[in-house]
Amino acid sequence: MEEKKLHPHNCIDRLELFNTLTSEQRQLVFKLIEHRHYSAGQMIYSPGESAGSIHIISRGKVRIYRLSESGREQLIRLLLPGEFTGELALFKEGIYEAYAESLEDTKICMIHHDDFKNLLKSYPAISVKMLSVLAKRLSISEQQSTWMSTETSKERLINFLIRSATLNKQGEMVVYLPMPKKDLASYLGTTPETLSRQFTILKKDGVITQSSKNYVKIHGLSHNDITCEIC
């Protein structure tokens, strides 16, 4: 069972939805929050459970995934601090349809749906921000569907790395992998073994170098090399 946080932590400033609120308004929101702590590997919610709150990640990482009829995991998204889940139940009462699991020591702020709906009515700017987030998630979901049907495992990996890359101080494209390779394989619709082989091939071909298991440097590619037309 999850433990309730004894000393409050403020995750409001992390969430872009609330960045238009004044300090006084944020304090009102803070009073609505219930604080929870989860250890690595704990389930935050599972399919079939009643969906009644927005979950905002204050610290840690949470993976959202589904299981196929054969028991195979399909990673939907990885949530980092400042991101949230549970928003779909705002628009339809019901149950969770996916799993949410903490990947590491995680702190979460929960706001009951009724309270959150009142916030949306009181502060329309929050509604606009939420629509923007949901539109982005829909776009990513469409991209993911395209990867599965049109790209090879190598193309999916290359495109993922390019999309995730940032430039370091030397102007090099670098990627910090935010999830274990098992979850990355699930997200890209392949197996961990196939993903490892593709990483090995890219290293051998000089496309990437890897100084640690989570840090990848890309060579000779740019965002113009993404093959997915809608990306």
TrEMBL record:
- Per its UniProt record, what InterPro entries does this chain match? cNMP-bd_dom, cNMP-bd_dom_sf, Env_Response_Regulators, HTH_CRP, RmlC-like_jellyroll, WH-like_DNA-bd_sf, WH_DNA-bd_sf
Q: Please name the GO terms that the record assigns under molecular function.
A: DNA binding; DNA-binding transcription factor activity
Enumerate the Pfam families for this protein: cNMP_binding (PF00027), HTH_Crp_2 (PF13545)
Record SMART domains: cNMP, HTH_CRP
- Domain Cyclic nucleotide-binding: residue ranges: 17-137
**Domain of life of the organism in this record?**
Bacteria
Annotated Gene Ontology cellular components are:
cytosol
PROSITE patterns from the xrefs? CNMP_BINDING_3 (PS50042), HTH_CRP_2 (PS51063)
Decide whether keyword Transcription regulation is in the record: yes
Which terms are listed as keywords in the entry? DNA-binding, Transcription, Transcription regulation
By its UniProt entry, which SUPFAM superfamilies does this protein fall under?
cAMP-binding domain-like, Winged helix' DNA-binding domain
Quote the protein name from its UniProt record.
Answer: Transcriptional regulator, Crp/Fnr family
